[in-house]
Amino acid sequence: MILINPSIHSESQSQAITPFIYNTFPTGLGCLAGYLRKYNNVVPQIVDEQIQPLSGRQLEKLIEELKEPRIVGFSLLTINCWHAYEVANRIKQVDPGVLVVAGGIHATVLPEECLSSKGIDVVVRREGERTISELVDRVQNQKSWYDLQGISYKRNGEFVHNPDRPLIQDLNEIPPFPYELIDHNKDFYRDFGTVITSRGCPFDCIFCSQRAITGRQFRVFDVERVLDEVGLLVNRYKQDTIWFMDDNFIVDKKRVFSLLNGIISRGYHEKAGFVAEMRGDSVTYELLGKMKEANFKIMSLGMETLVPRLLDKVEKRETVEQNIQAVKMAHEAGLSTSTTFIFGLPTETREDRKYTAKKARRLPLSDARFNVAVPYPGTKLYEIAKAEGGLKIKEGWSNFNVQSYMFHDDIPYAPPGTTRAELIRDTYMANLFFNLQPRVLKSWLMSPISGGMVLTLPEKWYFSPREIGNLVSLAALFVKRFFGICFLKGRSHKANIPKTSK
């Protein structure tokens, strides 16, 4: 079996910025691989096209070397689904008998779109471990799989959507993460030291597509198991940064304190620094003090906006003041704070964006990123944008990238009263003026964790002519785009909504 993490759409990102975008660790595929190894005695080969795209001959060789029955799975996001369809079609050309399976957020939300691709046979919706395990077992034993919970498929020209499979309640059923199946690519992942301690989030922000997978159910892995994974990464793999990639790290504060105390008692805080994503309304001085003791380096917050009306609009269920206080408290505790803002929220005005950008520069933030709002399918924001008639979807969803405003003008959405040109210009300028602050610019150039926690510079880049050349190319891209948006006309776009199951 092969599990593939597809490349993003070729039109979504300029090649000039590619060397500075770190490859995201494929946690979902790793969890599936570990589950299959434990319960099916199958060890899938994980192929990450975001590191090395598959040529025609490489794909052909992979399929030819695969033992029968042959199964290939894809993990789909909106930004990489179109390329996955292309690769799936190529697989069928090599061997029409391969069972091609699609899973992930995009497949869960738009199964009929996936199945309309000639190369996709089955869609696994929501959490995939139990479903893919049963599917593989049925295929191996030549049994019918059409009645499985949690799948969609096409039969006799009709789409069939079986009932959803309940989420796994005891996450410890999932075996420890199989880092050894991916460690041959360790040096390509800035966040190889990724650990997931929980799944889900009890909140339902209108822009978050992850709720399509987990709903609002929050479940946790055992603390001792999490500490063992941290120990493996620190001791065996010598990771000096551990990234806790939970949707919301501090839902259960008692559990978090247990984890922090475990990090300290095991001495991991002397070997690595830690990064976690959280909400501002859960931050306390006591928590920050313990995080500092455990050598947490960065607290990542999704502030979204500094306009109270807009934060209520996105159903964040926290206040602007709580977020501001969390940033100030973290600064006092000696922790850096990285945050993201979203421009282009429903009912947002240009004055709202200017206010957020100006106020953000006054906060003791070490890092910030201003993104355009992307109404991903499956979110409330998608339904709002569609109802307003202002949704623009390019072929293959190629413009559904929060950084797309940096490369082209066809961003997917702008709220009524705001042109796309205005939104692009305001977002670009907010990023420019924030990052040109001397303290931020210094951090961007010298820290391996910088650029809104998306862009990164290789260590000792200043000694490498190639890296310096890449940096010059990136600067040239930003300058060219700067002048381009300065003369961008305030034109609007007609909605272009593809026919989907949604």
What are the defining features of this structure?
502 residues, alpha/beta, Rossmann fold, pyruvate-formate lyase- activating enzyme, 2 domains, seven-stranded mixed sheet, six-stranded parallel sheet, 39% helix, 14% strand, globular
Task: Show the helix and strand layout.
Elements: E1 2-5, H1 27-40, E2 45-48, H2 56-65, E3 71-75, H3 81-94, E4 99-103, H4 105-109, H5 111-116, E5 122-124, H6 129-140, E6 151-155, E7 158-161, E8 194-195, E9 198-199, H7 211-214, E10 219-220, H8 223-236, E11 241-244, H9 253-265, E12 273-278, H10 285-293, E13 296-304, H11 308-313, H12 320-333, E14 336-343, H13 350-362, E15 367-372, H14 380-388, H15 420-435, H16 438-446, H17 451-454, H18 465-486
Parallel strand pairs: 1-2, 1-3, 3-4, 4-5, 8-11, 11-12, 12-13, 13-14, 14-15
Antiparallel strand pairs: 5-6, 6-7, 9-10
Can you give a write-up of this model?
This protein is an alpha/beta fold. The protein is built from 18 helices and 15 strands. It has a seven-stranded mixed β-sheet, sandwiched between helices. Strands 8-11-12-13-14-15 form a six-stranded parallel β-sheet. Helix 1 crosses helix 6 (129-140), helix 8 (223-236) packs parallel to helix 9 and helix 9 runs parallel beside helix 10 (285-293). It is globular.
Brief digest:
With 502 residues, the protein is an alpha/beta fold. It has helices at residues 27-40, 56-65, 81-94, 105-109, 111-116, 129-140, 211-214, 223-236, 253-265, 285-293, 308-313, 320-333, 350-362, 380-388, 420-435, 438-446, 451-454, 465-486, and strands at 2-5, 45-48, 71-75, 99-103, 122-124, 151-155, 158-161, 194-195, 198-199, 219-220, 241-244, 273-278, 296-304, 336-343, 367-372. It is globular, with a radius of gyration of 23 Å.
